[in-house]
Amino acid sequence: MLGIVLRLLGSIGVFLFGMRIMSDGIQKVAGEKLQTALNYMTNNGVIAVLTGFLVTGIIQSSSATTVMVVSFANAGLLKLTQAIGVIMGANIGTTVTTWIVSFLGFKVELTAFALPIVGLGFPFLLSKNSRRRDYGEMLVGFGLLFLGLGFLKSYTPDINEETLCFLEKYSNRGFLTFLIFVTVGTILTVILESSSAAMAITVTLAYKGYIGFGPAAAICLGENIGTTIKVFLVSIGTNVNARRAARSHFFFNVIGVIWMAFIFQYFCRFILWLAPWDSALQSNLPLNLALFHTVFNITNTLLFLPFLSKFAALIESLVKPTEIDKYRHYQLPYISTGV
For residue 335, is it within any domain? Predict the structure, then answer.
């Protein structure tokens, strides 16, 4: 039993490490251009959403995008409406990772290619050229990510009747089931500090037959809430603009889960109907989850987008400036008085 647990933890560790290295490498390769895109964003909410989607889709981390947004808001480079738009786009962008994991990780046997990819990237890491090292980091991270996912698939034990009986107790309790699995998703994301990693574990459990589509979809919703905790912690001690950006991220995701709670069963049926593949097949369950994740985040964004300015006004009324904010004078960002 201890060996199984340690192998699972090791698999998760390799996946997380690969995700972090790949994300860091991509940010180093394209970071300055992405930050410039965020800096010079227009007041158009649709452009802000598209920017958030593209940046997150490229760097494979909604948390990194949102933390950047909070940092820019803190420096006075982004207005609240712009920041909220990017955050909405980041939520859609993070579903790209789910598609990569669900399609490539389960439909294509990439484990065999994972080590060669690491081998291809390793010589670049030894280069004296920093640009080549960044590309090497990106390749090694990509290889490790799929190596970890392969381990996760291999070392997740097969289900038995006792396990099914245990899960059945919590899978047919209506709204209580929804709350339980949303909470599980939130806690899992907070522990792992990555909604992408939590999603990979969820998809693996569903693929192996531990949980059905409904509970797995509820865990996905919980992961949307869990990813806001890191951003909330980053905003502590920042100015009122940054705190408002972080709170808007939290309320946007929580409100999305609340309205989904009322139509959850019908929405799940709609996703299974919408799927262009045979949604009844167990092997297609990861794709069903990827589709659910994407359609939910797009729908949530479309519902909020027409009320962007009103939502920003609500956040401003909820998060008021403190005495420190009132007396904080303007200074050039990132430039100290010594310089």
Answer: no
Residue 295 pLDDT > 90: yes
CA distance 337 to 5: 52
Taking every pair of C-alpha atoms in the chain, what is the biggest distance, in angstroms?
A: 69
Classify residue 304: in a domain, yes or no: yes
From 190, 140, 185, select the one nearest 17 (Cα to Cα): 140
Listed residue (85, 89, 63) closest to 199, CA to CA? 63
Q: How many domains does the chain have?
A: 1
Confidence of residue 161 (pLDDT cuts 50, 70, 90): very low
Question: Does any domain span residue 338?
Answer: no
CA 49 – CA 65 distance, rounded (Å): 12
Is the residue at 328 inside a domain? no
The domain of 236 spans: 2-320
Give CA–CA dist 304/309, Å, rounded.
10
Inter-residue contact 59 to 34 (CB < 8 Å): yes
Kindly report, residue by residue over 306-320, the tens digit of the pLDDT: 888 889 899 888 888
